[in-house]
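Morning F.,

Quick status update on the modeling queue. The single chain you submitted on Monday has been processed. Sequence for confirmation:
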Amino acid sequence: MAKMYYEKDCDLSYLDGKKIAIVGYGSQGHAHAMNLKDSGCDVIVALYNGSKSWAKAEAEGFTVMTTADATKAADVIMILINDEKQAAMYNKDIAPNLTAGKAIMFAHGFNIHYQQIKPPADVDVLMIAPKGPGHTVRSQYVAGKGVPCLIAVEQNATGNAYKLGLAYAAGIGGARGGVMETTFQDETETDLFGEQAVLCGGVVELMKLGFETLVEAGYAPENAYFECIHEMKLIIDLINKGGVAMMNYSISDTAEYGEYVSGPRVLPYEETKKNMKAVLTDIQNGKFAGNWIAENKNGRCFFNASRAMLAKHPMETVGAELRKNMLWGDDTNPDTASN
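Structure tokens below.
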């Protein structure tokens, strides 16, 4: 069983007298900054000149600096901008301004694990990774709860990196939900695999194919959307609360029987597992990371074309119209990244 930490294991006072720079003020950045501020920490926000988030962060009570100036001023620098932007920003603004004994933090291990960022030996390098989007990190904190986090220490130059990381986790509310110990490698590879094979890649393809199959068979697109997409959240909420057993307890026996006889037909075990292993291999050997880095260097042609194609898919256009006219359409969209 992985080691877990809770509020009783974390000493928030370890952040007393330390200035924390939050680099980026998007979904995760604003949540970390606001939660830490509400926990009594000394927080500044680091942005580039001209950032559209600069005025917003100032309006919410933060001192805002360029990343270079914030790195000079801070004891702890938490990098919360997009993975593909981190290395260039680090080399330009952070690396020249680091001094011994400071700490660099991440919420995902990509750039450290794949050696896009190579910190000097005299700084702490650690990760506090909330297992939820930024708006949930904030809303759970406000509600007196917390999104569980992962903690990993790649470099413990001061000897106090774990204490610092646990204090930070407590400051953003993560210790209320639990903080699980891991490594940069394990977090990076499992996170990428989960996103690609199951949570994003797998689920989106499954919903899309289900939607298309029903529509091509003559059923109304609205019915197809409800059955293959809208109800996904209802099922996942049950699993999140009590595992597959709770889902099966809550659905009909007819649905559970269909799960057993049809799930393996849609996703044949050996073929699906073989394809998943291939995805994992590409993550482990760095092929995926290399492709993603190259994609960003070469204008994101495939990425942008894929995004545009998905936006035009009937699954998305039908869903948008339905959400406008149904009660749940009042839900606001979560913050998207803006740095």
